[in-house]
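User: I'm designing a mutation panel for [histone H3]-trimethyl-L-lysine(4) demethylase and want to avoid disrupting the core. Could you give me a predicted structure to guide residue selection? Please restate the sequence first so the numbering is unambiguous.

Assistant: Good idea. Sequence first, for numbering, then the predicted structure tokens:
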Amino acid sequence: MSQPRPDEFKPPPECPVFEPSWEEFRDPYAFINKIRPIAEKTGICKVRPPPGWQPPFACDVDKLHFVPRIQRLNELEAQTRVKLNFLDQIAKFWDLQGCALKIPHVERKILDLYKLNKLVADEGGFDIVCRDRRWTKIALQMGFAPGKAVGSHLRGHYEKILYPYNLFQSGANLLVRSIESHDTKEHKLQEQAQKQLAQMPDMCPTARRAKRMNLCYFTIPVLKLHLSVVMALNSLQTAPCVPQVDLVVCLVCGSGGEEDRLLLCDGCDDSYHTFCLIPPLHDVPKGDWRCPKCLAQECNKPHEAFGFEQAYRDYSLRAFGQMADAFKSDYFNMPVHMVPTELVEKEFWRLVGAIEEDVTVEYGADIASKEFGSGFPIPNGKFKVSPADEKYLKCGWNLNNLAMMNPSVLTHVTADICGMTLPWLYVGMCFSSFCWHIEDHWSYSINYLHWGEPKTWYGAPGFAAEQLEEVMRKLAPELFESQPDLLHQLVTIMNPNTLMAHGVPIYRTNQCAGEFVITFPRAYHSGFNQGFNFAEAVNFCTVDWMPLGRQCIDHYRMLHRYNVFSHDEMVCNMASKADTLDVVLASAVHKDMVTMIREEQKLRDKVKKMGVFHCKEAKYDHLQDDERQCAKCRTTCYLSAVTCSCNSGALVCLYHINDLCSCSVTNYTLNYRYTLDDLYPMMSAVKQRAELYDDWASLVTETLEAKLEKKKGLPVFRSLLAESESRRFPDNDLLRRLRLVTQDAEKCASVAQQLLNGKRQTRYRCGNGKSCSQLTVEELSSFVRQLYNLSCSLPQAPMLKELLNRIEDFQQHSEKVLADEVPSVAEIQSLLDVSFDFDVELPELPRLRVRLEQARWLEGVQQASTQPASLTLETMRRLIDQGVGLAPHPSVEKAMARLQELLTVSEHWEDKASSLLKARPPHSIETLSAAAEKASGIPAYLPSCLLLKDTIRKAREWLQEAEELQASDGEPMMDSLSDMVLRGQAIQVHLEPLDRLESLMVEVQEWKESAATTFLQKDSTLTLLEVLCPRCEVGNVGSPKRKPKKGKESPKNNKKKTPRLNTLSDVEKALSETKDSTSAMATLEELRVREMEAFSNLRAANESKLLPTADCMDLRVCVCQKAPMGAMLQCELCRDAFHSVCVRDPSDSCETQLWLCPQCQRSEKPPLNKVLSLLASLRHIGVRLPEGDALHYLVERTVNWQNRAQQISQSCNLPELEERPGTPPTLTSWVSGSHDAHNNTQVTLHLLVPLFLYFNLWRFYFQDGANGVRETMTGSEKKSKRHLEREGSDAERRVKDKKHSHKRQKMNKKNLQRRPTSTSTSSSPRSDFSQSDDSDEEMAVCPAERCQLPEGDEVDWVQCDGSCNQWFHQVCVGVTAEMAEKEDYICVSCTLNDGHMRK
């Protein structure tokens, strides 16, 4: 934003703007009287009518014609006009000489000759400035930059242009003629003239002010006085008297020679030689020429009074508007409605102060509404008012009604005064202005802007009127010398910024269409129009104006200014109608009449003492105002005047009797309108009318001004107010003062009673506990003084004084408590309790509350410090946060410092302890112990430090336990070692034994993984311990569910009980609780015994259910728990039967081998040497674990079995054991085996025995050693064996008979009644069972390894000619019908077992 120029106009502050309600707007005088205390402080105010108040414009636009005034803007401003007048004088002076010069430019600016002339005069004159070399100072004062030798230029211009004129004005050139010869003087003058001629610029004629303006430069007539003028003036004083002759002679030299060089003055016909003039003229001037004498006469003529010229054109309203809009639009080069008011305002004041810019506007001012019609509608007017607008006819704000309403004093002026009682119209254009003035008789004025662009106003309050006049006289004294009443001529304006700079208060406003502006008595105001608009104004006077009206008459008398109306006549008119006057107006008239009669009596006595004895009555109210004006002061006479017989038409007021004429005073006549005896009854009548009000006013005044014990009570004031309302006294200053005092007294009484009766608990409170209407102690003290200073007496005043004393005692006690270093909480609380009795805002209360909080906080800190175990970091932070919110105090700051220091130390050690515990790798126990020992001295609860101490304790206990473990002789148990490692890892301390224990754990885990790889089958769900230990859940083998493994649990009771080994978790727990391997072996041995017993029972049960006596349809076998059918398999261990399709994997080898069911085939069968190496590696690790004990026991069982097997082999004289497969036994032969071999075989299937050894033992049992062991059978076994053998023999016979008869015949599936059945188990693991004759589906499956299940009406079968005698589908074993008839067929199993080869 650009900075404003130093000379740019700065708008004054805004005046008040009032927006009355409809109720307030109803009575204009009441509203103006209401706002007067505010508005008269600014001199002017603006009133916006309520919304909807829009009177119609009643003026006839077509018939309104007027001649506007011409306003040249730079002639309006006082200081600018002074400059222009000065330049006019110089221009006139040199114009008479026929010479003109351009005003010189200095530093590219036009030289301000007026300012240069004034500055030189203020410095003492040209000679003194030259002598003291002050031209540089003059240049600086004129605003030129220093250091450019401007002073010498200014001196030259002054000497050429201004110095001769100043000599002419002062008369210093009129010297006495020196005694020297005429020739000598003429010679000197000619030399000086030649010198001046060389310095003189070119001459050129020019006009006066008409050609003052120029676009490029500013010219005026040359302001240089030739020295010839000076010498000619001297010759007027010194030339000898020459007798009058008819000859033409030079008045300088007295010679009539050289007539062709004689100049004849065009004013007086005097003659001068051209060479006698200084400087001499080379040629005779062609134009008019004035001699020095005529020049002096012309320049000394008085100036004409400045005034506005009337325009030569008569405008209609429409034509004037077109001209005004065109001017503004052209000037600002934009549409009129888009020009900002601020821009117009700044431009107006710039133009007003610019000499070089001549802007002329026109203003249609003071147009009589009586002639052209008012803008407001009037009754019986030419403008027809609509029914909706009839309310504006009688509206008080209609300016036609306002001036003559009853409250207006002007209603008692008999004549219609245009502009005062009748409105004037104003048609403005852009820049048209109204100059500084006050209204006639210092009356009110009101202006309404009907329509158009705004009008900008400036106003000064009435009390600053004399100050404004003094400033203008000081700044433009030349104007007031010629026109003392200049400000009453409305032709002079001055920049508000200039007035404000001299201390005059100025206010402004922009009056928009539909708004009123009111000016108050003696308020100077001025302004200008923003553009084309139409306004209307009128004057009015209220009762309060009466004293000012009389003061104005005295002021007019001093200025010799005429009166618009006679003030005395108006007062007498009102007095003559005393019975109808308002009581307030009657009172004001009475006061004015008292002053008037006193002054009139004084003047008449003076006149009589001067010798005027002739008196006569004069009806001055019958004369026109101009016929009864004082010849001296132009005051309109009414009560009296003095005339003289020498001039009956002349009269003077009694103040200027000496200025009437030169006749003797005895010839004067005193003319009077009323005698004093007539005036006193009139005054008495007014007094009687105002008596009621005056008595009431006197009583009110007396009551308001009573002192001390003479003061009246509040009821007296209320009764006076009630009387004013009942008698309808006017709402004037006195009544408002009474009302205000009464209201104040009532408020004070109410507040006093509240202070006396109310307590803090019983009154309304603000959010902070403070009463909304609470007084401070200072306010209470002031309130008490106010009670005693009230105009009325209140009974609460003494009681409040006592309350104030109690409060002051409370304050003293509070100050004492607050001064204590560590105050008591109870003492502060007691003071606060006492304060509730005072309904006063005590400044000590906040301090006491603050101190109470401080004391409570200090107590909390003290209590926390005495209990370090509960002093946590959070507690310290909370106390510090609370302390931060407290007000500063030394005790609090000390406690805060101690607490902050403790918190800092505690946080440091907390963070350090936490970092020590979280360090990776962990610190040694020595480092942690040193830190814990240092932190133990802090008097606070530090969780991390306590955790550090507990960690150190746990670390020491663990190390001690590790030492004991290392010192013990036996091998540590895996569970205890794992538990110890876990506990060591949880301790955040570097423990040296922990690394060794962790490596042991890693080795153990690796060993367990290696053992699991060795023993566990692929995708096995069994654990290593479950595989290695004897089975404890053999009895539940038929159930598909198995109890899950449970973790180790330590028994909680101290009573030792023998654990039940029902589940694997029980076994693991029992093994973990054993102290040595011996105990573990005993536990496993016990489990083995149970396992063997359980397997024996299981085998017997499974074999018994497979006996032929059982009902095959009710039998449930296999994992699917269905009846036997098709190819079946029998487990060598549990002896249960299984469907081949349920348990046989098609990828299994077809070679004959021992077959175990999925429930019995629990693990792999690694070589014994590999297992021994595993056991040796575990012993090398040196850690006991249940898997290791189980493996150890398994190895012992295996070795023992081997020994027993070797013993049996030796005792039975078995051949050398070979590693080849043998023929598996049948169901019958397996069951009837020897007891020892049977047990060993059962055990073998559980142990890690080489397969070749097992097969040899199996062959011995079924083939070579059957007879040797038969004796060992029990009786029942023998009986069962015989029964089975007999059944087997019968079956063999039936099979052989059938083979011989049907061997090469095709078998029909439908005709096949019964499948041949072999009672002996074939070498193939599948077994055939007898089925029902009509079971087609069961007949569809053959014992072939991959039965193709052929379908059709006939299926070809073939029977094995080997030992198994089983039937096979020909297509399944690759035998054609021709081969079946011609050749013997031996199945694969029989071929492998019996050593037969297909022929």
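For picking mutation sites, this is relevant: The chain is about 45% helix and 10% strand. The CA atoms of residues 1174 and 1180 lie 10 Å apart.
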